[in-house]
Write a structure and sequence with these properties.
alpha+beta
Length: 154
C-alpha cells in the first residue's frame, strides 16, 4: 500500500490517500483491530473504526474512516472530544457551580461557557507530526502510528 502514500493535515482531520487492493485493506483493518480499535460501521466501500480514550495513558479517542473505490483508498482520521464529555462538563458547571460556595460565581460561569464553546469549536484534531498545544503528544503519536501501519500493510 506504500506506493502512492499522500498525507494531508487540514487542521480538523488528517486525510491519507493510498493505492492498494483488498488484501492490503484487510491487513490494515486487522492491524487497527490489534490496536484496540472497534468497528463502528462496515459497508460495501466504507469502514469506520473508533478507539476509546485511555486518559490515564495520555491517549484520546480517535476515529478512522476508510473509503475504497477500486484501488484508490481514502483514509480520514482524527482525535476528538466526545459530545458526552462536553455535555457532562456543561451539566456539571450548571449544577455544581451554584452550590460550590464560590463567592462570585458569574466569572466562573463565564469561564465554563468559554471552555465549553472552545471545546465545541475545536472538537476534532488532526494528527500532524508538528502538532502543538492541545493534545500534542497523542496527535503526534497517532500520526506516526497510522502512517507506520499504512506503510506496513503492503
Amino acid at each position: 500500500m506504500v506506493t502512492d502514500l499522500t498525507i494531508h493535515h487540514s487542521g480538523r482531520m488528517t486525510r491519507a490517500t493510498v493505492t492498494g487492493g483488498d488484501a492490503q485493506l484487510k491487513k490494515l483493518r486487522n492491524a487497527l483491530l490489534l490496536k484496540d480499535f472497534v468497528i463502528a460501521a462496515e459497508r460495501e466501500n466504507v469502514l469506520e473504526l473508533r478507539r476509546r480514550a485511555y486518559l490515564s495513558q495520555d491517549d484520546w479517542p480517535i476515529r478512522i474512516n476508510i473509503r475504497h473505490n477500486g484501488h484508490q483508498i481514502d483514509i480520514c482520521y482524527f482525535l476528538y472530544i466526545p459530545w458526552g464529555w462536553i455535555s457532562g462538563f456543561v451539566l456539571l458547571a450548571l449544577l455544581v457551580l451554584p452550590f460550590a460556595g464560590i463567592p462570585n460565581p458569574v466569572p466562573a460561569f463565564g469561564l465554563a461557557a468559554v471552555a465549553a464553546a472552545l471545546a465545541i469549536y475545536k472538537q476534532k484534531f488532526d494528527c500532524r507530526p508538528n502538532a502543538r498545544f492541545w493534545q500534542q503528544r497523542p496527535r503526534q503519536r497517532w500520526g506516526e502510528t497510522v502512517e507506520r501501519l499504512l506503510t506496513e500493510a503492503r
